[in-house]
Amino acid sequence: MDFSRVTPESVGISSQAILNTLDAMDALGVEMHGIMLVRHGKVCAEGYWKPYNKKTPHIMFSFTKSLVSTAIGFARQEGLLSLDEKLVDLFPGKLPEHPSENLKKCQIYHLLVMGCGHETEPQIQRNPDWISAFLAHPFVYEPGTHFLYNSAGTNLLCAILQKKTGQTLTEYLNPRLFEPLGIKDVYCHALPDGTQMGGGGSYLTLEDMARFAQFVLNKGAWEGKQLLNSGWFEEATACHIDSSSNDTGPDWQAGYCYQYWRCRPQGVFRADGAFGQFGFMFTKQDALLLIQSASLRTQDELSAIWENLFPGMADTPLPENPTAFDQLRRRLNALELHPVLGVRNPGAEASLEKTVYTAIGTLPDLLDLAGGVGQFETHANHMKSLRFFSHEDDLWLHCQQEQGSLEIPLGMNGHFVSFAEQGVTYGTNSRWRAPNKLEIEFRCASYASGRRLVFCFEKDALTLTADSTLPVVSVLSGPEIPVCRFTIQTGDLNTKTKMYWES
Questions:
Q1: Do 189 and 197 contact (CB within 8 A), yes or no?
Q2: How far are the Cα atoms of 69, 176, 325, 482 from residue 72, in angstroms, in the given order?
C-alpha cells in the first residue's frame, strides 16, 4: 500500500486547522521533528523539520510497546502462548527463593496492562540477569489492581516472546508484520542477554509509523488480507485498567490498554513514546496523526491537537481552500529546527587555520558524543585530533579518529546544514559565544535530541564539553558525557604564534 497524497479538504480536514495546530506547537515551544496526517488511507499533510527527514528512522522510545503488543497478538493467534500463563511457570529458574503470593498470580495479561503489581519500576537495563532482578522486585499489589507504567514489564514480554518462538521481537515480526506492510530494516536495541528492548528501543520512519498505525486502525487487515484477527485489536485497544493515578496529565489518566493509551476524546487511542513520538488513531474519523518530536510538554501538545486539529475534521469533503492550502504547503516545505544566529569571528577562525589539536587520553567517538538522549551504546572509534578550516564561506571541523576521519560543516550561516556519515543524516548549526568559545549544536536525525558542543580555546589548550538539548532523563540519557581535552600538536603544523584569544 502506497499512501497517495491529497489536499486536506478533499478528505474533510481544514488546511487552516492544520496551520493552527502548527502555530500552537510553535507557541508552546514544542520541538517538532516530523508530522503526518492521514485520512481514509491518504496523506493530506506531511513535513519534516530540518535536519530531521523522511528517510532516517527516528528513535521511538515507548511507541515500541505497541509493536510488542502486536507481536503478542500474533503469538496468541498461532497458539504459541496464552495471556493467562503465569510468570512463575514461564521462568521457573529465575524465581526468588520464596516467591510472594502476588508474584505467583502474575500473568502475561498483567504485563500487557501495566498491572503486574510492582510499586516501583525495577531498573534492570544493565543487569545481565535482569529477568531474575525483575521477578525479585517486590510485587506489592495483587496483579491487576494497581497501575504502574513499567517498561521493564514490556521487556519481559519480549523475553517471553523469545522463549516461545526462539526469535527476537523484530525477527518474529518481520514476516508477519513488517514485510507485508513494506516496513524495512527495523532496528531495536537489546539488553545484555540479547532480549530486545520492547519497552522503548526501536527506530521507525514517520511513514513506517503511519503504516503500522493504519494496520491497527484496520484491525489487522492490510491490502485485503487479514494478517491478525480483528478481535485482538478490539481487545488490545479497549481500556483494561484505571490509569488515573498517572501524574503526566489527563490524557495519561484516560485508561490503559494492551500497550496503548486511551485519549480524552471518545474513540481516540494512541501509541506513545517519550518526548512526543505519537501515533494517534481516530476510529470515528478514520484518521491518523503521526508525530516525531522532542517535547517536554507532551500534555500541552495533546491539548493543542484536541483544540485546533480535532474541530477541523468534518464527516464529508470540504470546499477546497487554495489560499490556506498553498500557505500550508509552503510552510511544510520550509520546516527547520529553530537555529541560532550564525555569529562569525574572523580573527578566531584565522588563528585556527592549520592548527592541529591532539587528544589527551582516550576520548569518545565524535558521533557518539553528538548522539544525545536516545544514545544507548558507544563505539570503539576514539578521537585522535581536531582541526578547523574554512571552506565555502563556512567553518569546518576535521576530526581524525582511530578508524578514519570526519569532515563536518558547522553551519555558521544561521541555518542547519545537513550531511551524511555511515548512512545516517546529521545536522549542525554553530556560533561563537565569546572570542574563545565556539558552540556547535549537533543533531543526529535518528535521535530525539542532540548535543551542544562547546569548544573553549586557551593558549595551546582546547577543552570540549557537551550537554544534551533535552534535560538528562534517568536511563534514557546514556553514559555521562566526558570532558574532552586537547593540546596543540607539536611539529610542522604547530603555529607557535600568538592566538587571537590570548591576552
A1: yes
A2: 5, 12, 42, 40
- Residues 180, 165: Cα–Cα separation, whole Å: 20
Domain ranges of the chain: 346-488
Q: pLDDT tens digits, residue range 453-487?
A: 999 999 889 999 988 888 755 445 556 678 999 99
The more confident residue out of 491 and 181 is: 181
Cα end-to-end distance, the chain, whole Å: 65
Q: Is the pLDDT of residue 175 over 90?
A: yes
CATH code linked to domain 346-488: 2.40.128.20
Category of 276 on φ-ψ map: left (φ > 0), alpha (ψ -120 to 50) or beta: left
CA dist 35 → 112, 276, 290, 501 (Å): 28, 11, 6, 44
Q: How far apart are CA 499 and CA 503, in angstroms?
A: 9
Instruction: At 438, list the grid cell.
Output: 565556539
Q: What is the pLDDT of residues 323-374, one digit of tens each?
A: 999 999 999 999 999 877 778 999 999 989 888 999 999 888 888 888 765 5
DSSP H/E element including 465: strand 461-468
